[in-house]
Amino acid sequence: MPVQAVHVTSIEARRFSGAEEDNPDQVRIDHNSTVTLVQRIGDEATEIGFRYTASYGGLGVIKLEGSTRFTGEADAIERTWQADNEMPQDVASEVHTAVMQTCVPRAVGLARDLELPPPVPIPQISFEDGQAQADEGTGREVH
Q1: Which residues make Cβ contacts (< 8 Å) with residue 55, sequence separation at least 6?
Q2: Which residues pair with 38 in a beta bridge?
Q3: CA angle, residues 44, 46, 49, in degrees to nearest 5
Q4: What is the C-alpha to C-alpha distance for residues 94 and 102, in angstroms, rounded to an integer?
Q5: Which secondary structure element, helix H or strand E, spans residue 3, and what is its range?
Q6: By Cβ atoms counted within 10 A, which residue in 9, 51, 103, 132 is the most buried?
């Protein structure tokens, strides 16, 4: 896999309103992964800086910044980034996927600490005929 370990270098998490204030039942949570820096390192590696943001509207925000190293395609990455601040689509897909896989679980813990809703949907469990059933669209429970 060309994406090497994702390193988080900065964390900012804020709740804008007090936990004791009314919590709306439904909160829109917007996720954003942005590439902030693309820097070639050597012949076949590129350092890619990122910023991940989970925004809770007026309720709060979670931001993580860091970097990852992408091995391979250094020429193509450098050319497309210098030309129009974009990466090749296959590289961008791998980088943003790796960023989300690293940052979303960390954001869940930070959200819990700030008493914000988790930035991922939590499956709803109902009991029918004495057995737990997850809502449609979630994985099957194994007994």
Answers
A1: 29, 30, 32, 61
A2: 48
A3: 170
A4: 12
A5: strand 3-15
A6: 103
CATH 3.10.420 fits 3-134, yes or no: yes
| Structural contact between residues 56 and 29, judged by C-beta atoms closer than 8 angstroms | yes
Backbone angles phi, psi at 45, to 5 degrees: -130, 150
How many contiguous H segments (helices) and E segments (strands) does the chain have?
2, 6
Asked if 31 contacts 86 with a C-beta cutoff of 8 angstroms, the reply is no
Question: Domain residues of the chain, as ranges?
Answer: 3-134
Take residue 24 and report the two structure tokens written for it. 């709306």
Strand boundaries in 16-104, DSSP class E: 30-41, 45-55, 60-71
Q: Are the C-beta atoms of residues 106 and 63 closer than 8 Å to each other?
A: no
The residues of the chain scoring below 70 in pLDDT are 1, 18-25, 122-126, 129-143
State which amino acid sits at residue 12: E
